[in-house]
């Protein structure tokens, strides 16, 4: 043994260890003529777990000693204290009592070689703390068991700490992972065999009844989730009443309520922004009329509902339906161009020349009373059959087809193709399956789209003539692949894909600029003021021009458009996340099927990730593709893995 260290044989196994002397406490010295034994279990110690337990005094003996020692505030030496509680001083008794004293007991405190009886106040405090600790451990065990059972929770039975942990798990499920999970929660998750990642936590919360299977994290804490406040709904009710009274400017509107006009939209659309009519004047001139709803009649600038619409930027289109920019009672009521109802509108009339160019046009506020409300299917039938008493739609279709061909000669790109979209039908929470809805570019859809583009071109031309700041939409000129290269690609999605990847994003600014893919020198979106706030802004600019008041200057309009950019991007992100989720739900229900696909292009060739088009679904989808695939190659597509709660969809395309 060195002067300041000792070589020890630890425990009954005699594990060798070197320890500083200052860390050692002598309980009892070996007294004997022979050398000390190498193990505690050997004579004369004969110390083992059973032997130590056998000589340990009873609880009542320790309690009696505690009472007696209340008169000994200075404490007793360890050997004296052992003698008090057990009436013996041998090494086995000392070792047994020493081990007990260092255990979870609360009666005594051992300092160096001195045993002190704890004061009654300390005893009560320690016992209270131990009780609380036991209760906490029991609560944690129940919490871990609840997570392991994965059954719906009764929040009232949870402690405040557990509710906080649950709220933190909900944050993590929503993608807010900045706050780390505390150790007890991580241990509880580990016991429940749940990894600390967003997807696993979502699965757990769905089982616990704390997360909706079709919940959109990007909707959390947005204006869309909050809905319209009670004050805004009350304001909407007030406007519903005032809509039936005469308002400023109503007397100056052109009364077109006797004109035969129609609105054409999807069968389930209730907020109708636009309508069409055809007029032949006594002089034989043919005018196309495009009527656009005028919500500005009811919504004053900077009013509460106007500011709320500005916060939203546009209506939000989800698989389950529309979240409107204005309260539904207004959007589908007096703002909407309803068949048989006299409605306020902005009316654009256009005369085309024989080539399809605009020969003359005009714009004015009006009263309209749509004669019919048609679905696209109904309108397709009328265009196709062209009955003598209902020839207007067929004639309109012919005129707007001429206009479309004029735009093509100006360089417009026609990239129309069927589009597939997943719709959440019925009550998804009750297991109603989502449905695939394919929108075909039918004659009626192309006609309405061309009419809206024509209206935007006319308004942009007016703004250009009057040097009026408007939210002009533009697109930079693109360099497309050579004609020979495009001609070598299959017509339709493959060729469209090659063209689309060359196009730049559209831009909104206050100065007119060409729009490449539309083939127009200037363009303004102006036909959806119930659904797009920028369209309402354009109407207000036009009203100021007509009334001779001061329109918003370009710098102020640019600032407003900049403010709208954030809500519009957020809405687009929510809409994309929603459609991606429902695609995953749909593919999960059709995971055993196979579809024929056509390779479009590589996304990440190093990962063999490509873009394919599936005609049966009318969708472009990312999939793992065979190496060396070329545009136009036919492949077989199948689901490799899908988990909507993990935002996971892996598709595999094989040759």
TrEMBL record:
Which ranges carry the RNB domain?
A: 253-548
Identify the InterPro entries for this entry: NA-bd_OB-fold (IPR012340), RNase_II/R (IPR001900), RNase_II/R_CS (IPR022966), RNR_Ribonuclease (IPR050180)
This protein's GO CC annotations = P-body
Q: Tell me, what is one Gene Ontology molecular-function annotation carried by this entry?
A: RNA binding
Q: Name one GO biological process term.
A: mRNA catabolic process
- Which Pfam families does this entry report, sorted A to Z? RNB
Fetch the SMART domains from UniProt.
RNB (SM00955)
Q: What is this protein called?
A: Ribonuclease II
Which species does the entry assign this protein to? Cyanobium usitatum str. Tous
């Amino acid at each position: 043994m060195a002067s300041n260290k000792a070589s020890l044989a630890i425990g009954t196994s005699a594990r060798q260890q070197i320890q500083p002397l200052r860390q050692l406490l002598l309980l009892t010295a070996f007294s004997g003529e022979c050398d000390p034994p190498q193990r505690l279990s050997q004579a004369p110690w004969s110390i083992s777990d059973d032997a130590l337990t056998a000589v340990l005094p009873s609880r009542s003996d320790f309690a009696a000693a505690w009472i007696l020692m209340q008169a000994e505030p200075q404490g007793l030496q360890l050997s004296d204290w052992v003698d008090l509680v057990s009436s013996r001083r041998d090494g086995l008794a000392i070792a047994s009592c020493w081990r007990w004293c260092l255990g979870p007991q609360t009666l005594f405190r051992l300092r160096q070689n001195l045993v002190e009886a704890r004061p009654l106040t300390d005893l009560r405090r320690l016992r209270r703390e131990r009780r609380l600790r036991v209760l906490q451990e029991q609560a944690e065990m129940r919490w871990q068991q609840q997570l392991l059972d994965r059954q719906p929770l009764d929040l009232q039975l949870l402690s405040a700490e557990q509710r906080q942990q649950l709220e933190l798990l909900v944050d993590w499920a929503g993608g807010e992972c900045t706050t780390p999970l505390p150790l007890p929660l991580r241990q509880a998750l580990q016991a429940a065999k749940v990894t600390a990642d967003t997807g696993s936590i979502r699965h757990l919360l769905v089982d616990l009844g704390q997360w909706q299977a079709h919940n959109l994290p990007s909707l959390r804490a947005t204006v869309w989730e909050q809905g319209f406040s009670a004050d805004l709904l009350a304001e909407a009710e007030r406007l519903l009443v005032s809509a039936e009274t005469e308002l400023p400017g109503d007397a100056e509107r052109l009364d077109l309520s006797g004109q035969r006009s129609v609105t054409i939209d999807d069968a389930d659309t209730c907020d109708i922004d636009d309508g069409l009519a055809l007029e032949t004047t006594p002089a034989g001139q043919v005018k196309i009329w495009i009527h656009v709803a005028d919500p500005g009649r009811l919504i004053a600038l900077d009013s509460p509902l106007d500011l709320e619409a500005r916060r939203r930027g546009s209506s939000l289109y989800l698989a389950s339906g529309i979240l409107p920019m204005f309260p539904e009672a207004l959007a589908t009521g007096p703002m909407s161009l309803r068949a048989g109802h006299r409605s306020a509108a902005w009316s654009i009339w256009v005369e085309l020349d024989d080539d399809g160019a605009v020969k003359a046009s005009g714009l004015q506020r009006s009263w309209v009373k749509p004669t019919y409300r048609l679905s696209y299917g109904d309108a397709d039938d009328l265009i196709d059959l062209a009955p003598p008493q209902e020839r207007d739609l067929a004639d309109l279709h012919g005129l707007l087809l001429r206009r479309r061909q004029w735009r093509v000669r100006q360089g417009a790109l026609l990239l129309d193709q069927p589009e597939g979209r997943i719709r959440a039908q019925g009550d998804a929470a009750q297991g109603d399956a989502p449905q695939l809805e394919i929108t075909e570019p039918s004659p009626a859809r192309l006609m309405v789209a061309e009419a809206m583009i024509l209206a935007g071109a006319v308004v942009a031309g007016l703004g250009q003539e009057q040097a009026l700041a408007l939210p002009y939409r533009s697109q930079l000129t693109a360099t497309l692949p050579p004609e020979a290269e495009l001609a070598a690609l299959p017509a339709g999605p493959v060729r469209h894909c090659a063209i689309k990847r060359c196009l730049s994003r559209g831009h909104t600014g206050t100065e007119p600029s060409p729009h490449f893919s539309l083939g127009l020198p200037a363009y303004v979106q102006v036909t959806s003021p119930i659904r797009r706030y920028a369209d309402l802004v354009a109407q207000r600019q036009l009203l100021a021009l007509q009334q001779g008041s001061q329109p918003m200057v370009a710098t102020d309009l640019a600032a407003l458009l900049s403010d709208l950019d954030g809500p519009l991007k957020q809405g687009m992100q929510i809409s994309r996340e929603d459609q991606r989720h429902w695609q995953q739900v749909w593919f999960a229900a059709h995971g055993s099927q196979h579809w024929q696909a056509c390779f479009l292009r590589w996304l990440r060739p190093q990962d063999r990730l490509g873009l394919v088009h599936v005609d049966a679904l009318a969708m472009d989808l990312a999939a793992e593709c065979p190496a060396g695939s070329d545009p136009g190659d036919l492949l077989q597509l199948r689901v490799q893995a899908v988990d909507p709660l993990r935002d996971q969809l892996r598709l595999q395309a094989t040759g």
